[in-house]
């Protein structure tokens, strides 16, 4: 049994394109509809109810496009809204927190696990819960890093100011001698060189994109929802603010050109 | 003729409270309804149409509360939405750009004028136009400073990273030997000590809050809308996301305690 319908993927903005990049690599026959909520970005320090409301509206939009599954490619939306989306939707809903936690537990052995993310993701405790569900005795050191997203969006990933900011945010992670660090925000993979510089080359940086794509493949296969093996995929990019900035910045996150972006105002 | 109705004031978030602070000082008998669009903050790098849509919704809300005038206490919303709001509303609408430009032209004499603001405010050219309308030969040096708002919201106004960021953003301002700098964002008054450190103590920092409050006083007086001279003012604070964070951060911008914040989801 196969299903040619697209996978719906959403994020507060463009960061979720790092997950799309990995979905394209691992599932080259799957079509994708991506929604970036650029009119209301960021979600990182907004309240759980607000993020739930936004996530529901986007899930409605994606379902109106006939998606067969929804990937919440945003850590904050996963942290606040995954349970309500799972309870309410007919299609399977995959988040980024559980796959990231699973990869971290596998990599860390008995060592401490560091988690960095937005203020909202860290405050929600979603990673703590997901890691402890897999490894009850794990030591988790979590730190919100609110300035990382604006630094990435400004393109200052190699700036001396970014180095100072990272040094301060990561001090408790270094102090705990963490060797496995979860990048709990889809913007952070663009900071990998800086994080290695601050934490040392030996630290494993867990980017949940790869593991989330693998989880998506598993879910589709289990439910008979995978695309036909000879399908030619289509990719649709939709955002709630102006398409031009999405396109320009999005190509950096996706790692390939974006031809066309639709605008669909929400909110 | 007097009018006891409140003045409506809005901003993308909490920055507009610096304007409220000044309104309270200059117009101690006026009641105020403040709306902070914390569920969709920031406006700084969003498109003009999105910012216009948000501004209209907020103006509708404020009019539903019976305001006698609307102060757009947000530079980005003023830059993108002031003309449409003025064309559509029955009540007078006051922005922050013209008052700031007027104060800058008065302070600068024949010297160059620097303007810093969000990417959207600077791209809109609103300050350029307002300054040149008053002083056609003025030399204007404008620079978008996207990281200043997140730095202020993180409370890192005196951090070494903020100093590095300011040094880079302000390089063209320093190179032009600017002695008058418009703070074209309501978050920036909290950076005054840092800006003086980077630019020297002799630079005049034009904070449009003071001039905007004076303009509001003039408009109310001209139209017979001022509050009775013995009126006891009431202050209402409303935001679109969770009230708790608004209250906590808002007190720093307002410079006085905030007792109660209402939530009114928009968007």
Number of strands of chain A: 10
Instruction: Tell me the Rg of chain A in angstroms.
Output: 18 Å
Summarize the amount of helix of chain A as a percent range.
Answer: 40-55%
Shape of chain A: globular
Number of helices, where a helix is a run of at least 4 consecutive DSSP H or I residues of chain A: 12
How is the largest sheet of chain A built, in terms of strand order?
4-3-1-2-9-10
Helices and strands of chain A, in order, run as EHEHEHEHEHHEHHHEHEHEHE
Secondary structure class of chain A reads alpha/beta
Q: Note the quaternary state here.
A: homodimer
Which sheet architecture does the biggest sheet of chain A show?
6 strands, parallel
Q: Quote the beta fraction of chain A.
A: 15-25%
Largest interface: A-B, 28 and 28 residues
Distance between the termini of chain A: 38 Å
CATH architectural type of the largest domain in chain A: 3-Layer(aba) Sandwich
Under CATH, the topology of the largest domain in chain A can be stated as Rossmann fold
**Sequence stretches where pLDDT stays below 50 over 5 or more residues of chain A:** none
Q: Residue-averaged pLDDT of chain A, rounded?
A: 96
Q: For the record, what CATH class of the largest domain in chain A applies?
A: Alpha Beta
Total count of domains of chain A: 2
